[in-house]
Amino acid sequence: MGEIVATAEEQIQPHNNLEAWKSTEKASPCEQCKLRAFNICHYLIDDAPAAADTPDKSMWQPLERQRARRNIKSAGERANRVSILCDGWAFRFVQLPDGRRQILSIIVPGDVITPTRIFGEQIAFSVQALTDVRYQKYDRAALKGRLATDQRLADAWSDLILTEHQQIFGHLIDLGRRSADERVAHLVLELKARLKQRGLVSQQSFEFPLSQKIVADTTGLTPEHVSRVLGSFRRAGLIEATETWLRIINIDGLRRVGDLRI
Amino acid sequence: MGEIVATAEEQIQPHNNLEAWKSTEKASPCEQCKLRAFNICHYLIDDAPAAADTPDKSMWQPLERQRARRNIKSAGERANRVSILCDGWAFRFVQLPDGRRQILSIIVPGDVITPTRIFGEQIAFSVQALTDVRYQKYDRAALKGRLATDQRLADAWSDLILTEHQQIFGHLIDLGRRSADERVAHLVLELKARLKQRGLVSQQSFEFPLSQKIVADTTGLTPEHVSRVLGSFRRAGLIEATETWLRIINIDGLRRVGDLRI
DNA sequence: CGTTGCGTTGAGTACCATCAACTGGGGTGG
DNA sequence: CCACCCCAGTTGATGGTACTCAACGCAACG
Q: What is the pTM of this model?
């Protein structure tokens, strides 16, 4: 882990817009959000129909915050809010009584934390913050109301659910039928693709705040083995990584390992 | 595999209502369906609102049929129909170019084949018939229309999607964090629970038309290992099985192996 | 300066895959 | 009617991938 992605931090600063929010919190926190152009918020805010029945006071609420390693939601909890992750990373997971843990999916900035919550109050998994996070809550009923009248928002939300489904299926294939190398490479490439859609990748390098324990619990491996796999990737000149950033050096090589087409 | 569940076939005959349909095919094929009380069709047909805007001619269409081992849908295909499996079993799967195959889920009689198709035309997986099957197709747009006006149907459909989600999450946990024994036991118990909801379990015994190759592709194992696991279950007095039926002898023992609570 | 958490590395091992041979049943064709 | 094949399942031998257990370095932190 000696080699450092020296310039990465200057290139992208996903957190810096938060500094701006702090000072203007009485206005909409979404005002200066750089993700808005690339995620569902575009349809919620910018593209709202002219006759929007909801000047939606919920949109002017201050953001919720949570610190790294704290749970945002717990399995079985009931709630009538749908949250969107404005800043920071999180993950959905299930904790088994004997200590085993399976991470169901990683949530990156701009994602909806619980897209299926529009269908029901309860969720079957817990959500934990991976970094310090801020998120916006929307009232479930109000959202459902808007989905009923705003066709473009409804379509976008449908897309969200379908995309999530495909991600889960990809994950199932990884866990059921792919080797450790394939799983890890695939995870890296998938996260890169998702971050790219949000404008958070530059020069093949991006924020990657996953500890090896988190990677292990996502890919169904042990942390020790993840260390070996990532080590082999590094020695093969495929990637470079620090604690919080990752740069893909040889993307074709990495794809050869883990971007197996479905 | 010597021991036979001698009386099972007399106890339940899930296929026999089809014989009735054959002779009355000009009427609604759903007329005599025994599953209707237990699945989404209840809300589609029996519980239709008085002012149903749709005397839905689609409901009077003859059933589609497909023979065992043939694909019902292929990944990437576009279609504007949502299908409900009236009779027989099927499975959703992804075929990898190198021959590996992962089964995403098993579809039992009464299930919606593609619940998420209401959100979009395309699906990411293929569906294959496991036995001879018959299914009813509904027009996606018409269904969406009814969902918009019929609250109980909409709620039922939401439930469908949430339930499917939870099943998938359970599957992810199995593949990522559970041993072969646990996976197989869990699969058996999950299918039993789902069949029970449809009134298709009697005396702990139920139809089970999955070959060991199918079980292997579902659980991420090899057929040989599935054979060993099922063999050990049989020798331990947990289950009895024929090619198409399965009886749980010692449900507590089986639960101790694979019903680990989430 | 001890502690704690994370990553790395090594040695030994277990679980499951792979390869192979064999069985029995069902279908097919001579 | 029998020979044959094919498929599903079983069983054994062998091996590899990834796990387990353990020790250690290192940075952050109180």
A: 0.89
